[in-house]
Sequence to fold (113 residues):
Amino acid sequence: QLQLVESGGGLVQPVGFLRLSCAASGFTLDYYAIGWFRQAPGKFEGLSCILPGDGKANYADSVKGRFAISKNNAKNTVYLQMNSLKPEDTAVYYCNRPQDNSWGQGTQVTVSS
Fold:
């Protein structure tokens, strides 16, 4: 059974960092594109996507240069390294498999002093 499970969220101070994980089961992650999204009150945003195979990635302008997506095929996991966090990064973060619009349950990230 296909499953995506996010983890790694929490409370962090501004300019801090977090690494989110998206653990996949039921399929081989390297064969599929995987994306990261976030939901803040009144705003839903696509952040980054990593392609299958060569792992090329793209980023939304709002996170370019601060966030980095990567994957570990041996662990069947995609990561989102988030640096220089800002209060406006506060949201629930989700990973997604676009091919069939499968979603994880989300992980809360709160950036606050």
In short: The CA atoms of residues 33 and 67 lie 17 Å apart. The chain has a mean pLDDT of 96.
